[in-house]
């Protein structure tokens, strides 16, 4: 691993999701997540695995989650490069402009909050 990879979080372990994430890898996964939003608040984190900013925001958000005692939502993770079609469906179905990175909070099948880039924080879920 190079010096810059050590500082900025290179590719090592990139495909390993933290245990609190539920991956969205198909339209069926997305449908299940949206259905869950009728029982409990959910949040979808849309991440570009090739973008330094997205990697940094993801790391910071994961640190917040790990330090939180409770945040009251199921967390879903979408790899934009692998599943751009699903990201497009989210944007269309929830009437939210696509951004990356992006956190979308959903309750009762509707987006109730969303943020992108450095605006992504745990407070988006808690509010």
Automatic annotation (TrEMBL):
> Which InterPro entries does the record associate with it?
BrxC
Taxonomically, which superkingdom? Bacteria
Protein name per Swiss-Prot or TrEMBL: Bacillithiol system redox-active protein YtxJ
Q: Which organism is it from?
A: Chryseobacterium gilvum
What high-level taxonomic lineage is stated for the organism?
Bacteria, Pseudomonadati, Bacteroidota, Flavobacteriia, Flavobacteriales
């Amino acid at each position: 691993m190079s010096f810059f990879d050590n500082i900025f979080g290179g590719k090592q372990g990139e495909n390993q999701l933290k245990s609190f994430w539920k991956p969205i890898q198909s339209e069926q996964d997305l449908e299940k997540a949206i259905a869950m939003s009728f029982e409990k608040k959910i949040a979808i984190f849309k991440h570009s695995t090739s973008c330094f900013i997205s990697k940094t925001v993801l790391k910071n958000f994961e640190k917040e989650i790990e330090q939180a005692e409770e945040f009251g939502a199921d967390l879903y993770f979408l790899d934009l490069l692998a599943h751009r079609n699903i990201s497009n469906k989210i944007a269309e179905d929830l009437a939210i402009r696509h951004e990356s990175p992006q956190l979308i909070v959903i309750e009762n099948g509707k987006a109730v909050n969303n943020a992108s880039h450095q605006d992504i924080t745990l407070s988006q879920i808690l509010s």
